[in-house]
Amino acid sequence: MFVIDTFADNMRELRMRAGLSQEMLAEKSGLHRTYIGSIEQKRANISLKNVEKISDALGVDPAVMFIDGIVARNDSVDMFDAVRDELEDETPLLAVGDYAVCTWQDDGEVRLKPIGVYSEDLTLRILCILVEEGYGETLEELVEAYDNVSGPVLDFVRTFKNRELARKQELMMERQGIDASEFGQTIGEAEPEDTDAPPNPFE
């Protein structure tokens, strides 16, 4: 099942359990009703900010929204709260602010592996793509695939940003008629020394 399908099914299930219409959920989350409807119809791509808004409106942890099978498990939300508290007590290797990928086993056990995160949104996108491509059979396989992919993706993003910055600088210089050799001077580089100036007696 795709991540967006899981989220949509869970949102609809939790909305109905809470006795909320789409209009009521939209009002509580500060989102438009048609947007809520398009999520449940699995037509909308949802951002992390909106995941948080919807989760808050439903009164659940955002991670609950991505658990497969929550529709068929009445105890999923309560179990997740208990498991999260247990993880906080039993993960001394994770400090506050660290990130990890975790799996929730059928027997209620949770396993996790730490991962490096440059951007929450970028990390979630990479993980979603990897799961959709079949790399989520085991936790170890998913984390290994993430480690192999995240480095090159991050390098590409940084290179792309640098190219965009260079392009914007070139356009600005072209519009203002500035030569590239004068660019550093124009943005505040120190004036060159005046060789004809009298010597400073205090030096």
Give the CA-CA distance, first to last residue: 74 Å
Uncertain stretches: 185-190
Structural class: mainly alpha
Number of helices: 8
Q: What is the ordering of alpha helices and beta strands?
A: HHHHHEEHHH
Mean of residue pLDDT values: 76
Number of DSSP strands? 2
Helix content: 55-70%
Cα radius of gyration in angstroms: 26 Å
3D shape = globular
**What is the strand arrangement across the widest sheet?**
1-2
> Which percent band covers the strand fraction?
5-15%
The biggest sheet, with number of strands, parallel, antiparallel or mixed sense and barrel status, is: 2 strands, antiparallel
Task: Describe this structure as you would to a colleague.
By secondary structure, the chain is mainly alpha-helical. It contains eight helices and two strands; from the N terminus they run αααααββααα. A hairpin with a 5-residue loop joins β1 and β2 (110-115). The longest helix has 38 residues, at 139-176. The chain is globular, with a radius of gyration of 26 Å. The termini are far apart. Residues 185-190 have low confidence and may be disordered.
